[in-house]
Amino acid sequence: xxxIKVGIVGGTGYTGVELLRLLAxxxxxxxxxxxxxxEAGLPVADLFPSLRGVVPLIFSDPAKVDLTQxxxxxxxxxxxxAMAQTPALVTAGVKVIDLAADFRLQDAAEFxxxxxxxxxxxxxxxxxxxxxxxxxxxxxxxxxxxGNPGCYPTTVLLGLAPLLEQGWxxxxxxxxxxxxxxxxxxxRKAEVATLFAxxxxxxxxxxxxxxxxxxxxxxxxxxxSGNDDVRLIFVPHLIPMIRGMLTTLxxxxxxxxxSQDLQAVYAQRYADxxxxxxxxxxxxxxxxxxxxxxxxxxxxTRQPDDxxxxxxxxDNLVKGASGQAVQNMNLMFDLPADTGLQVLPxxx
Amino acid sequence: xxxIKVGIVGGTGYTGVELLRLLAxxxxxxxxxxxxxxEAGLPVADLFPSLRGVVPLIFSDPAKVDLTQxxxxxxxxxxxxAMAQTPALVTAGVKVIDLAADFRLQDAAEFxxxxxxxxxxxxxxxxxxxxxxxxxxxxxxxxxxxGNPGCYPTTVLLGLAPLLEQGWxxxxxxxxxxxxxxxxxxxRKAEVATLFAxxxxxxxxxxxxxxxxxxxxxxxxxxxSGNDDVRLIFVPHLIPMIRGMLTTLxxxxxxxxxSQDLQAVYAQRYADxxxxxxxxxxxxxxxxxxxxxxxxxxxxTRQPDDxxxxxxxxDNLVKGASGQAVQNMNLMFDLPADTGLQVLPxxx
Amino acid sequence: xxxIKVGIVGGTGYTGVELLRLLAxxxxxxxxxxxxxxEAGLPVADLFPSLRGVVPLIFSDPAKVDLTQxxxxxxxxxxxxAMAQTPALVTAGVKVIDLAADFRLQDAAEFxxxxxxxxxxxxxxxxxxxxxxxxxxxxxxxxxxxGNPGCYPTTVLLGLAPLLEQGWxxxxxxxxxxxxxxxxxxxRKAEVATLFAxxxxxxxxxxxxxxxxxxxxxxxxxxxSGNDDVRLIFVPHLIPMIRGMLTTLxxxxxxxxxSQDLQAVYAQRYADxxxxxxxxxxxxxxxxxxxxxxxxxxxxTRQPDDxxxxxxxxDNLVKGASGQAVQNMNLMFDLPADTGLQVLPxxx
Amino acid sequence: xxxIKVGIVGGTGYTGVELLRLLAxxxxxxxxxxxxxxEAGLPVADLFPSLRGVVPLIFSDPAKVDLTQxxxxxxxxxxxxAMAQTPALVTAGVKVIDLAADFRLQDAAEFxxxxxxxxxxxxxxxxxxxxxxxxxxxxxxxxxxxGNPGCYPTTVLLGLAPLLEQGWxxxxxxxxxxxxxxxxxxxRKAEVATLFAxxxxxxxxxxxxxxxxxxxxxxxxxxxSGNDDVRLIFVPHLIPMIRGMLTTLxxxxxxxxxSQDLQAVYAQRYADxxxxxxxxxxxxxxxxxxxxxxxxxxxxTRQPDDxxxxxxxxDNLVKGASGQAVQNMNLMFDLPADTGLQVLPxxx
Lengths: 348, 348, 348, 348
Hints:
Four copies of one chain form a homotetramer.
Chain A: E1 4-9, H1 14-24, E2 29-35, H2 44-47, E3 72-75, H3 81-91, E4 95-98, H4 108-115, H5 122-127, E5 129-130, H6 133-142, E6 145-147, H7 151-166, E7 175-182, H8 196-199, E8 204-205, H9 213-225, E9 232-239, E10 245-252, H10 262-269, E11 276-278, E12 296-302, E13 307-314, H11 318-332
Helix pairs in contact in A: 1-11, 6-11, 7-9
């Protein structure tokens, strides 16, 4: 088989360099082009010395490059870039995987409300697939355009899918997602709030009054449960670590749910999911157990009064972003799910 | 006035050195004696060079020292030590402030269940006061023996006191306390789990199935609300930072509560509390804003469906332990509340 | 005595907030005014919540404020600001303490070379005093204008002063200063290189080919030794910690030096220096033992072949910047050296 | 080719889990057995959840296992264990790679002095090869027993080999190795000094008066230079990061050395070394650029007076330990050097 010709738009951020780390060792990929407005002309390995001797590419000026030569293009860009370029790529038969939010929310008005941009290609949006392979594998395989899920949504949705799909949650109380992310989630942007001397040895909540991942999660919760009554309280926190995300989910079971052996239910639901690991009963996962790897681990703990506490961990840059994007690509090109994704977590 | 003669039992842990930091600069305190079984004979400043030139004390063998010469004795020891020595001190008229759990739970059976020790002085226990000055100031002033609150309970109780006292919570849903602590909360014990290479750049929940602070919090929630129906889901997490604790509280208001201006209610409730700071509406506190200081800051955010999210921060070693202990001492000796507690947070 | 009326120019950086932390509790200081071009109108405590309830000041527009009402003005600004404003202040009889480099290098050409700015008040520069109190106390007492030393220079100069003053170093080999600084030394500027996700769990050298502190150190080494043959190799490193600086000095003794009891020499040299702590023989200092405090600790280790290794630690923001500035102010206003500087290190 | 049957003795420490991470994905390796006295019977993946689903091994009791079934045995044990078991393995024709110090020092008396153990198999020691492949590749290929180099020595020796081999250093001044290591270098042992709350946000030197790596480095410096006059000042520091080592080398060139183009010399010396990366002139390496990868990067900076500053970085657990051990194994079994060692650094 010919290698997949891959283009990356906007490769200077953390999801960009993470795509490069994974794709550079992907046996079926040929890295064709990577663009950056700001760094055009600079060798990639000068910006990211971790790739010296491995990635010989030079950042290209996006205005001067023809991405239609690629089989697939990843957008690791700010919101709004992908939707501007995707129509031409789709026309040329190129597949698109957007790591930003342009194709995550089917409701264009909602997108516009949260991202302050009108959606410029709602026709493509309506065909785009939400790239959560453990839930939408069949659609992903057929997709031309993927909206790669946000990091927080991935933890909430994979944490709750088995319960939502079965209709076992009591929606008279809201789902509470108390989420915690490492600082790389804020991206490689020069900002005071994420300086080492600000974010280190410190802890804070943010976005309590509204976060862009709230509508994305809620829309998917409704879709997965087939129930519009779902409500969600979502509180993200910033943790002084580079990578890693842990979401603690507090939910209530309904009458049907309360009689289930949840441990067995989860084990069965994810038996064929190579990247979801259900921890043994009584064992909680930690984020370093997935550092650098495309794995999400979760534990299920019953609480009094039919409540359940789920603890879900992933590497926000891998299963929460670039790794999941590669997982989608593998599906789209009929490759075994774990091709190029066998890298093991770095512990300690 | 004569200075207060202070003894510290077990001064080699983090709450011990924190007591020393605060008391060494307390204008009304004379540090009289500090004991350690393991380090007897060692100058304190050899173990804690931060105190070189400031604390001239040498660790004493607890078997050879007469603590009845003191006006007050702090126990910064493992659970069980204080209750063994307190009866003799009480007889001698010495006041006792225990930073461990010996005098926190009025229910001796509960103590025994969680700490695997029979309680050896239940008569004294029944007279002991739970040292949360913002709630029990009058009792603290009269107390001979103080059970200094746990770090997690302090955040939950001060976070909810205004609502509990008014009876504004809906107890048909549990209070959810999603709590996060810096690693110093685990103490200065040689353990693999809290090594730098284990706890750094990592995040995990623990004690989901049961934590010793759960019964302590629950007992106080019941007492503060006068309602035995309160239920609590408490999930602590270990955060890769030295100091700091942030507890996110998810609660539901009842019909009375929902019509209140909570921001104003909290501001008024804590108007005379020098160590509790209600953040302005819309502003969330971070832990570094209290690093090293005896301050607890909190924010109140209304959510849909009558839910409220409270974010509460403190330094677990100060307002969550040694600072609160000194605050109790000030009350017990009729000193202005902030005597010796004016040290400002270290930011950055 | 009337309190000293203090102005701070440029109070939004780390040396600014550190000045505020120290001066807010200084018993002889009245914080009069603090300026910021970018934050004019904002309450200081909104930017630095650690100062809520303690510092009621609001940032003033520097264009609208009359600093001549102050007794002393601290400049916590980028290089070049102080020299523009100092002449008017000197004329008005106001003392000036500049925490930037404007008054550190007596050689204006050298200043111009390293800072790419012509020096605009060389007459005042020639009268300015290098504010290293342990060496130049008498001059500081008389000074109108202080060039507060750089953080790295403070460690090198106090580390070597006893040897330089006695003429005990062998200048046929260079002094090697292998220096390590916490990230706060880079300031509160939005830059990618000092983001948490870049600087955490990482270590690098920088400025090996030339650093602005090199000429400052060298000029003082020559002055202290009275010898123009001194040579210096200075290699700074960036350490993933917020505060703290450790400089390892590798020097060679000459014939006279080799026969000395250096431990005794250092102890005697700094016997009257309340902020310099000579560690006992065989004990090395760590940075946390000075975290937040105006203390510099050092150790002396003899090596084979007449080499000596000195390890010097300080908090870069305190003894390396704002604390030393307050120490200078105390001298200039005839206050006891440790007034307002008794805050103890925060350990852990 | 049949896969190499690998045994690991003592797999519960950091070099052990690192061997597992690398060998589990090594295409020519079959992990046969792993022993642990303390954890016998425990699944490896229970101790290291990062290996769940990948390493099915269970820790074996070392007393009950026959290691002679293996082709090669790695010792990731405390000093002294390998030399007790190696004779029997050698007799059985099994190759041995010891990650501890038992076979690093050819001088048994020196070993005994520094490690407080008599050497029990000096005959094997005399045949053992110092496993630094970039210097001793031919000997490694023929070796039955490898003493895998210490982490610090690897940085110093690869940093200086080009100069030592050419005889270009001036030995009238000592080589100064100012070295910095992440905390994982201290191992996975429960000790107070390496607790998160002790080692985080802190920096210290240690072992200034003598460190076990000093004799190892010195012996190799003499061997590489063929000169017994080499002297070494070695000062290690503990850095608050998990992984990573950076050694700053300060050396003086002799008359021959001073006229060389060092950048070109180094580039040529390491042209065929896949794991040594000479940075471009003027660019300094950082530790994260090698995090998790078997790469050592170095830069060369000329200083005045014929001094040179070399900055050398590696991951202490990979090129400084387990990765280098696998590199040695590849050589011993005639595999391409990078087999199983292509994992890329994790950045950020």
